[in-house]
Amino acid sequence: STMYAGGALGKGPEHYDIVSKGMSDMGYFTATWTPGRFPLTDVLSLAAWVDGKDVATEIGNAMYERVLKKEFPGVKMIELNGCIQAFMWTKKPVKTLEDVKGLKIRSPGGHQTNYIKALGAEPIFMPLGDVYMGMETGTIDGIVTCPPLIISFKLYEVAKHAVVSTFGCVSEGVIMNAESWKKIPDDLKPTVDAVCHNPFKTTGGLTRDVYKKMVTEITDKKVQLYNLPEKEADRWYEKFQDVTRKWVEELEAKGLKAKEVVKMYNEECEKRGVKVAAFPKEWR
Length: 284
Description:
The protein is of the alpha/beta class. It folds into two domains: about 10-85 and about 170-205, D-Maltodextrin-Binding Protein, domain 2 (3-Layer(aba) Sandwich), CATH 3.40.190; about 85-165 and about 215-255, D-Maltodextrin-Binding Protein, domain 2. Helices cover about 40% and strands about 15% of the residues. It has a six-stranded mixed β-sheet with strand order 5-4-6-3-7-9. It has a three-stranded antiparallel β-sheet with strand order 1-8-2. Helix 2 (about 55-65) crosses helix 12. The relative contact order is 0.19.
C-alpha cells in the first residue's frame, strides 16, 4: 500500500472527494471544511467536554448509525468523530467576557467561528503553521484549538495563557472508496471494522489518559490554565447555546430535523459522561 501524507493528493477540503472518486482507496477527511455539504454532521463539533478522541469516536460512530449515515451515500464509513475540546489560548490573561472583546482569535472554522463572534472577539482564518508567527508579531491575540496541536506546533512558547473551556472542534473521520471496500474479501471485512472502527482505542493514541498527560506537559511549559468560575462560565455557554439555537433554526428552515439530531447528540454524550455546554437548557 502507498500512503499520501498531508496534502499530497489535494487540499484538506478536497480529501472527501479524493476518496469517494477513487483517487485514493481510503483517507481522513474533515467535514467542517466543506460548509453546508454535511450540515447535520456538524453536530459533532458542538461545544462539549470531550476529553479523548476514543470517546469522540464512540459518540461519532453512534450518531452515524442513528442518523448521520444519510449524509454519506456511496462511501464506506470506517469511523466518524468529533474532535476533543478546544480551549482559548492567548498571549495575555483572559478571565471574563470583557477580556475577550475585540481580541483577534484564530478559528478552525465551523461552530467555533460563531462562538468566537458570540464572545465579542474577531475570528481569524490562517493556516496552523502561521499561528506561531502571527502570535509572536501580534497579528492575532490567540487561538481556539485542542491541547495536542498546542504541543505539535510549539504554541506553548507564544501562548502562555489558556481558558479551560470547551469550544468543541471539527467533525472528521475516515472513509473508504465504495469499490475499494467491495474488493476486500468478505471474511476480512469484520477484521477491518474491528481494528479501524475506533482507531484511537485500538492504538491508544489521544485517549483520555493521553490527553491528561498532554495537559500536564503544557502546564510544565509554564502555560497558565485558568478555570472559569461557574457564574462566568454560564455567561460564555449561554452565548454558545444561542449559537446552537440559531444554527438549528437555519437548518430546520431547510427541512432538516436539526433539533432532533442535537437532542440525540446530547443523549450519546450523556451516556459517556460528557456534558454538552452548547446544548440549550430548555431542550432537556
